[in-house]
Structures are given as C-alpha cells and as structure tokens.
Amino acid sequence: AAAGLSYVGAYVINTYKSYDNFLQDKYALLPAVIIICIAVVMFIIGLIGCCATFRESRVGLGLFLAIILVIFIAEVSAFVLGFVYREKVKTDVQGTMHSVFEKYDGKNPESAVVDYLQEQLHCCGVKNYSDWTTTQWFNSTGNNSVPLSCCRQDMKNCTGRLDQPQEL
Questions:
Q1: 8 A C-beta contact, residue 58 and residue 149
Q2: Distance between CA 167 and CA 11 in Å, rounded?
Q3: CATH number of the domain located at residue range(s) 87-167 in this protein
Q4: How far is CA 52 from CA 55, 79, 87, 123, in A?
Q5: CB-based contact 147:118 (threshold 8 Å)
Q6: Can you give the residue ranges of every domain in the chain?
Q7: CA angle at residue 94 from 90 to 96, to 5 degrees?
Q8: Which has more pLDDT, 78 or 17?
Q9: Which end of the chain is more exposed for a tag (fewer CB within 10 A), N or C?
C-alpha cells in the first residue's frame, strides 16, 4: 500500500507540471506531499506490525492496533473535510481557469496549457464551449469560433465555428 501511495503522490507531482498555470495556489501540491508522507508512515507502521507479529509481542501488537485506529480516524476526517470543502475547491479552480482562459491569445505559454488541457480532457472551455464567447481572444478574432483544441479528435475538418457545435 505504501508503494502504491508513493507512486500516486509522485504521479500527481509530475502531472502538476502540465497544469501549474491552472493551479496557482501555493498549496496545490500539498495533497501530493501529504500522500507521500502517509506512504512513508505506512511503511514504518507496517514494519512495526511485522516485527510485533514475528516476536509475538502483545505490547507491539497493541501499539500497532492503536496506530491503525488513529489512521482510520484520520481517513474518516479527511473524507469529511473533502466532502465539506469540495464546492470551495471547485469554485477556486473554476475562477483560476476563467482567468487563464481570459489570457488566451493562441501564442503565449498559458495558451499552450489551455490547448493541452482541452485536448487531454476532451473538453472545451471551463463548463462548455460557450465560455469562449466572453474571452478577449474570441472578441478580437471576430471569426465566431473557438480554438481548434476544442475540436473532437475524430473530426478531421473541424474549424471550431460555433455554428457547428456537434464538432466541438
């Protein structure tokens, strides 16, 4: 379990590099760091449990049980906090995404991140393609279309025009 959590934490940190423009909050990597710390603690606790079992130590097994109960309580607390604050996180991420989409011009680094995000997640805009109609890029181009990264990958001749939403 510790190895699996270590992998997940490292994967989140590595993936963060692709989306760091959307997650401008300095605490965005905190969950990944916590996951890695938990993996280290789980490894140590697993060693304590194995050693207590091999030595048949009642005190060691009691300590292991107490630690497992504390971990269970922490997991339930983390679940409750995640459930309670999910809307705040959603609102914060959407606000940051709107500001990044507002800076889109098709040339700057933020634009490349927006294009990458839309292609990888097979989406267009923050909620849908109509989010583009309020951006500076949309108004400056005047061609009534969204970036080509909004196009479905199976559409070969997609132009991003809003009068053909089935291609987006």
A1: no
A2: 32
A3: 1.10.1450.10
A4: 5, 30, 43, 52
A5: yes
A6: 87-167
A7: 120
A8: 78
A9: N
Do 141 and 105 contact (CB within 8 A), yes or no? no
> What confidence tens digit (pLDDT) does each residue in 25-35 have?
556 677 778 88
Rounded CA separation 80/74 (Å): 10
* The two structure tokens encoding residue 166: 């089935």
- Give every CB contact of residue 165 below 8 A, 6+ residues apart in sequence: 129
pLDDT for 141 equals 75
DSSP 150: G
Indicate the residue type of 90.
K
Which pLDDT does position 56 carry in this prediction? 87
3-state DSSP assignment of residue 145: strand
CA distance 143 to 141: 5
Task: Give 112-154 pLDDT, tens digit per residue.
Answer: 878 888 888 888 888 888 888 888 877 777 777 788 888 888 8
Task: Please give the angle made by the CA atoms of 65, 71 and 72, to the nearest 5 degrees.
Answer: 90
Torsion of CA 34, 93, 118, 143, to 10 degrees: -160
As a whole number of angstroms, the distance between CA 27 and CA 10 comes to 16
